[in-house]
């Protein structure tokens, strides 16, 4: 039996892209029932920790350019799901938080998402999470090294 050729980097990239797109499509189908976009879900998920986050951190976590994030947050503010406040420690910066209505909305949608998405076994999920975190760390280190 011949030995299979070693996996090429583009194969891994293609697999990661396919997995992300399939997961995003599945997630969006659940969110559609509640009128929530994937970008809004990412913002609400980040803010669900109750900490309040700088808009720059929200943009980074939601993978959105700042101008797009501002429009999205404006929309979430109009829906009374998010509010913005000036940071008391640095008055030049703005913190975003979930409103009580936003917290309720996020908890409800979060339950629906968890109930409808397929899950890996606990061991597989932990393994995948660990490998993906290691991959992200490796890619971030490589980017930092190539920038210097």
From TrEMBL:
Protein keywords: DNA-binding, Transcription, Transcription regulation
Give the HTH marR-type domain ranges.
Answer: 9-137
- Which PANTHER family would you find in this protein's record? TRANSCRIPTIONAL REGULATOR SLYA, TRANSCRIPTIONAL REGULATOR, MARR FAMILY
InterPro entries for the chain? HTH_MarR-typ (IPR000835), MarR/SlyA-like (IPR039422), WH-like_DNA-bd_sf (IPR036388), WH_DNA-bd_sf (IPR036390)
Q: What is this protein called?
A: MarR family transcriptional regulator
SMART domains in the record: HTH_MARR
**GO:BP terms for this protein?**
response to stress
Gene Ontology molecular-function annotations? DNA binding; DNA-binding transcription factor activity
Under the heading Gene3D superfamilies, the entry gives: Winged helix-like DNA-binding domain superfamily/Winged helix DNA-binding domain
Q: Name one Pfam family in it.
A: MarR_2
